[in-house]
Specification:
The chain has about 180 residues and is α+β, with helices and mostly antiparallel strands. It contains 6 helices and 3 strands.
Length: about 180
Amino acid sequence: MSACFLRQVSGCPETRAREPTARELLIVAPKTQRSARRVALPSECVTALRAQRAQQIADRKAAGDTWKGAGHDLVFTTKNGTPIEPRNLNRSFEVLCARAKVRRVRFHDLRHTCASLLHEQGADARMIMEVLGHSSIRVTMDIYTFVRLDSQRSAFDRVGDALRGDGNSPGDDDGTAGGPVAAT
C-alpha cells in the first residue's frame, strides 16, 4: 500500500509516493509519470499549506539536531521531521472528523469527495481525471464521482420544466403547435 504526500519544490506542491516496509517508511518514486503532477489549488488550501510550512519550520528549529527530515522536503511530517505513519494519520484524521462533528470517513475517501465536488461544480471529466492522476476518464467517472440527490432533483426539475413548456427560451415549444407527436 502506498500513500501520496506533498513535497515542496520551488513553491509548487508535487505528489510523492511513500512505501511502508517492515521497519520504516521509504520515499520512492511514484508508480507512473502521470502520478508526479502539478495541480491547481483553491486559495484556502494554499493558505493552509503555507501555515503548515511555517509550523514545520518552527518544529524544525525546536527539534534542532534531532530533526530527521533532511533531504526529503515533505510538507507533512512528525514533530521531528520523519514521515507520518499511515495508522497515525488515520487516527488523527478520525479525531479531526469527530471534533468537526462530521461523518467519519477514511482518509482516502477525501479523493472521492474532491472528485464529486469538482463534478458538481461543473468541472469536465478530463480535468477531474488529471487532478486525480487517472489514466482513464472511465475510472474517474465510474469510481470517484457520485451524483448527489439534490443534483438529480434539480436535473429532473429542469426536465419537468421542459415537458411543461416552462423553459426560459423564447423559442420554447409548449407542445400545442403542430398537433400530437407519437413516441417511437
